[in-house]
């Protein structure tokens, strides 16, 4: 039976793609033939005159999986706006069944599927208010929550974890992303401690800022080595 995780975040731009790519490469380095998917991308990039998901491209280049970004991405819109609006501007509506079919196809071929959401849990995918959280529930996957390291993260992370649980979702753990390069400073360490205490969810890793890394420019730098050192892999595999 296939397993997987739904990678969500406390906000957009918190590092979901970096963490998803790092988990994917780290799992594969541990002999688990995982794959990742990005169901909905708003703000795709032009590659060879084709609009592709930059998040999907980033996972594939770090992990070396020879799939096309289109194999692991269902919807890719040019505008970097909320998915429901990006879809409307394209004259489309996001269909959860299309995403579920792609997930089922990947889950039939790979023993673990990582699914990256868009924005945070309450980001709407459709005009009718169907959200990212609704998609996570329909896919039946436990969550990994990516959180910022600095000021404000306790509030955002506790809200996200409590809302997930209110909706009946399982939170497998939290990965704190973007702490100081030399390791978490006093504020960041305290944030991690309070997040663990106030949510009761395990902090599965604390990932530092990696100089030069860029999803937009497809530059993973030493992400795999950094993830290897930063993550509690026994809890994930
Ligand atoms: N640990 C990190 N070190 C360096 N840059 C990072 C790190 N995490 C995220 N970034 C950068 O921050 C931006 C947002 O990260 P991303 O993973 O794309 O967020 P999300 O998927 O949540 O929108 C990207 O430009 C990415 O390159
Ligand atoms: Mg992303």
Relevant CATH superfamily:
P-loop containing nucleotide triphosphate hydrolases
* CATH architectural designation: 3-Layer(aba) Sandwich
How would the global form be characterised? globular
| Total helical elements | 9
Please identify the oligomeric state. Answer: single chain
Quick one: CATH class? Alpha Beta
Q: What is bound: which ligands? A: adenosine-5'-diphosphate, magnesium ion
Question: What structural class do you assign from the helix and strand content?
Answer: alpha/beta
Q: Helix and strand string, N-terminal first?
A: EHEEEHEHHEHEHEHEHH
* Main sheet attributes: strand count, strand direction, barrel closure: 7 strands, parallel
* Major beta sheet, strand line-up: 5-2-6-1-7-8-9
Rounded to an integer in angstroms, the radius of gyration calculated over CA atoms is 17 Å
What is the CA-CA span between the terminal residues?
A: 14 Å
Total count of strands: 9
**Strand-residue fraction?**
15-25%
């Amino acid at each position: 039976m296939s397993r997987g995780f739904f990678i969500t975040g406390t906000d957009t731009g918190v590092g979901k793609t970096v963490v998803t790519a790092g988990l994917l490469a780290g799992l594969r380095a541990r002999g688990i033939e995982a794959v990742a998917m990005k169901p909905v991308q708003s703000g795709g990039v032009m590659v060879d005159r084709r609009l592709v998901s930059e998040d999907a491209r980033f996972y594939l280049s770090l992990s070396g999986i020879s799939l096309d970004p289109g194999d692991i991405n269902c919807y890719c819109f040019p505008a970097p706006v909320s998915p429901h609006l990006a879809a409307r501007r394209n004259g489309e509506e996001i269909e959860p069944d299309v995403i579920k079919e792609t997930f089922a196809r990947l889950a039939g071929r790979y023993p673990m599927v990582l699914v990256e959401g868009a924005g945070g849990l309450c980001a709407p995918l459709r005009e009718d208010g169907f959200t990212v959280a609704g998609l996570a529930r329909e896919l039946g996957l436990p969550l990994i929550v990516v959180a910022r390291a600095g000021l404000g993260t306790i509030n955002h992370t506790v809200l996200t974890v409590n809302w997930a649980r209110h909706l009946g979702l399982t939170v497998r753990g939290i990965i704190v992303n973007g702490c100081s390069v030399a390791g978490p400073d006093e504020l960041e360490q305290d944030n991690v401690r309070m997040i663990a205490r106030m949510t009761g969810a395990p902090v599965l890793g604390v990932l530092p800022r990696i100089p030069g890394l860029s999803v937009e420019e497809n530059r993973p730098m030493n992400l795999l080595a950094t993830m290897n050192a930063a993550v509690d892999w026994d809890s994930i595999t």
